[in-house]
Write a structure and sequence with these properties.
Elements lengths: L2 E3 L6 H13 L5 E3 L6 H21 L2 H17 L6
Antiparallel strand pairs: 1-2
Length: 84
């Protein structure tokens, strides 16, 4: 399990209290990262996600890739304001 530092508050007073509590040993400056209940399923999905894009690119024809790229460019330019 990985450990992470506690999140620092943005309020200066709360931050000062947290630092004081850490220095005096009242609280630990780390928290244990939670392991998901279905860690095996998460790992399986991650493996599929890592190879999905490469497998899709390999299966597409150059013409189909071009069509997808044109549609993506058109969608991006559609979002640009006219008076820029």
């Amino acid at each position: 399990m990985a450990t992470k530092r506690l999140k620092r508050p943005r309020d200066p007073v709360q931050l000062g209290k947290l630092i004081g509590d850490i220095l005096t040993g009242q609280i630990e400056d780390r928290q244990v990262a939670a392991v998901p209940a279905n860690a095996a399923a998460t790992e399986f999905a991650r493996k599929g996600g890592l190879k999905g894009g490469k497998a899709r690119a390999a299966s597409l024809t150059p013409a189909k890739r071009t069509a997808i790229a044109k549609a993506a460019a058109k969608a991006r330019w559609k979002k640009v304001p006219a008076d820029g």
